[in-house]
Amino acid sequence: MLSGEPGLEIVAEATTGREAVDFCRELRPDLALLDVRMPELDGLSATREIKQASPATSVIIFTLHESADYLLEAVRAGAAGYLLKDAGRIELVTAIRHVLAGEPILSGDVATRLFRRLTAGAGPVARRSQIAPLTPRELDVLRLVVRGKTNREIGEALGLSSGTAKVHVEHIIAKLGVSDRTQAAVRAIEMGLLSTSG
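Structure (tokenized):
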């Protein structure tokens, strides 16, 4: 599906999760594309091990599983993206390029399901008082991050430049005490930051 794509080079193909970890440890690729279900070592455990063995390697979970549980576990394991296999080639390549540019990505459908599931739950996992307050504009940006939007899409939706949207996302990440936008989306949902205002 990716062979011949300009600017992307496939350096190895693994048939098991264990093999993927070993390849990443040895080759230190920029990105690893894993499924949730893999022989020998599942993709989520492999993600954890890859992030320990080769921290600079970004991981995208590319799967058939439209599961909020898997998405949460993938983010906690260190995945920079979660994309469904029904995505077309263009969507996959776009997601890879975003992640390689440091902009983690979530499949919009899965992110929306996760948001609904967590906001319908028993309540926030952590208290809002544990973080610096987000401005109304940051909450607007955060709502779009939770929906899997890129900085460019956030800028277009809110009448901002993509650079300004990026700065807002960076402030949100810092205030929530996380390392990337995917974790920011999950943390915001877990804390109930968006449940009363959108």
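Confidence is low (pLDDT under 50) at residues 122-129. The domain at 116-191 is CATH 1.10.10.10 (Arc Repressor Mutant, subunit A).
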